[in-house]
Amino acid sequence: MIITDIIQKKKEKIELSQDEISFFVNGYVKGDIPDYQISALLMAICLNGMNEEETFNLTMAMRNSGDVLNFNDCNRKFVDKHSTGGVGDKTSLVLIPLVASCGVGIAKMSGRGLGHTGGTIDKLECFKGFNSELSSKEFMRLVRNEGVAITGQSDNLAPADKLLYALRDVTATVDSIPLIASSIMSKKLASGADGIVLDVTYGSGAFMKDAKSAMQLASLMVKIGKKAQKNVSAVISNMNQPLGYCIGNSLEVVEAINALSGNGPDDLMKLVYTLGSHMLIMGEVVDNTDDAYKLMQNAISDGSALEALKNIISAEGGDISYISDTDKFDKAKNSYECICHKSGYICHLDALKCGHVAMRLGAGRIKKGDKIDLSAGIILNYKVGDYVKPGDKLSTLYSNYDITDDIISDFKNAYIISDNNQVNEKLIYDVVN
Ligand code: URA
């Protein structure tokens, strides 16, 4: 086979065979095919798409490029969760301990934040000592003994995706539904869960800007999962405004601890319970949504969900004294209070703008490997639909850098305040399964 023939075919919108897809994936991982040829192919895929069969074959070729874990010898079902990303999205920090405390096994590989989106691994590193780079052996040992573990992406898991994703990032080829679906599903299928619950976000702070494209991405991922004989559901959720009230790593960790202690914001808890009920049903702990909600609400009120967070953190070397004393998290040196100057309803609070501002405050990284400031970020006091008046403190920005007028003015642009409360957006748009 010749790589230029494969590029030519995709350029002419001709379907690629399973062998051709395996050839370019394996050739790239082995270093036989150079970046410039794979870049050309990725751009052709981005422009001309892939059908379901090609996307499935690409997913399986990437999955098979490394280890494929399984927990079949454990006496419980394993369910994984993945979000396509957002701003203020601390769902996993609440959901994973909650669902684990209800008896579902979880072997979770999580990522770091990139650009305006946050990542669970950065948040977990707010706990001093937390080891986010477990070896595969240590990860498997913890999963088997504790029933739950969270770690960073192992090098041996879907290495083809790691290489392709890095190339997509610098060749403007991230925003392709077949490439996103195969990237996410290859990692999920390699990490050995029996079931997968996807949170597919749409809106200004998400990859998918509208609900229609989120639905397309979700149905494609569900189809790929089913074809690979996994149970998969996708919840389509709105990311036009940040989730919860906190954006930035340690600020979000505190919000997640409060949520596990029974004081979570409504939007975050709604998403957590929706995703959690799918996970409990897939994990065969309950067989209906009502029982799932009751079990999760009990786990929060009797303290077992918070206890599960402590167990996860301490099993991976983290200092759990931060959970009972959240004042111990490092504080940023500088802060700025954003005061409201007009009365009306907040009808827009742009997630992307908030994410970009949080990044400039130090909470996010522009490129992989950048160092981030775990204490930087934003605390919002009001969300879309709330009535505000002059003098109200809308939010506070935190940073160890100077909080410049330019940052403040960009942040103020995230808000639209109007006389009418005209917004009627649902947090959960739909469920695909
Ligand atoms: N997340 C991934 O893991 N891959 C993508 O392509 C996009 C988001």
Structure characterization notes:
The protein is an alpha/beta fold and 433 residues long. Helices cover 45% and strands 15% of the residues. The protein is built from 17 helices and 13 strands. A 4-stranded mixed sheet has the order 1-4-5-13, sandwiched between helices. Strands 6-9-11-7 form a 4-stranded antiparallel sheet. A 3-stranded antiparallel sheet has the order 10-8-12. Helix 5 crosses helix 12. The mean pLDDT is 95. Bound molecules: uracil (URA). The site of uracil (URA) has 7 residues, from helix 9. The site of uracil has 7 residues, from helix 9.
- Poorly predicted sequence stretches spanning 5 or more consecutive residues: none
- Spatial arrangement of strands, main beta sheet: 1-4-5-13
Summarize the biggest pleated sheet.
4 strands, mixed
Counting helices, strands and paired strands, the structural category is alpha/beta
**Heteromolecules bound:** uracil
Number of separate helices: 17
Nearest-integer average pLDDT: 95
Give the percentage of residues in beta strands.
15-25%
Number of strand elements: 13
> What is the rounded distance between the termini?
38 Å
Q: Helix-strand pattern, N to C?
A: HHHHEHEHHEHHEHEEHHHHHEEHEEEHEE
Element layout with pairings:
Blueprint: H1 3-11, H2 18-30, H3 35-48, H4 52-63, E1 79-83, H5 91-101, E2 106-110, H6 120-124, H7 136-146, E3 148-152, H8 159-169, H9 177-190, E4 195-202, H10 211-227, E5 231-238, E6 246-247, H11 249-260, H12 266-282, H13 289-301, H14 304-315, H15 321-324, E7 334-339, E8 344-349, H16 351-363, E9 377-380, E10 387-388, E11 393-399, H17 405-412, E12 415-418, E13 428-432
This protein binds uracil.
Residues 84, 165, 174, 179-180, 183-184 line the site of uracil.
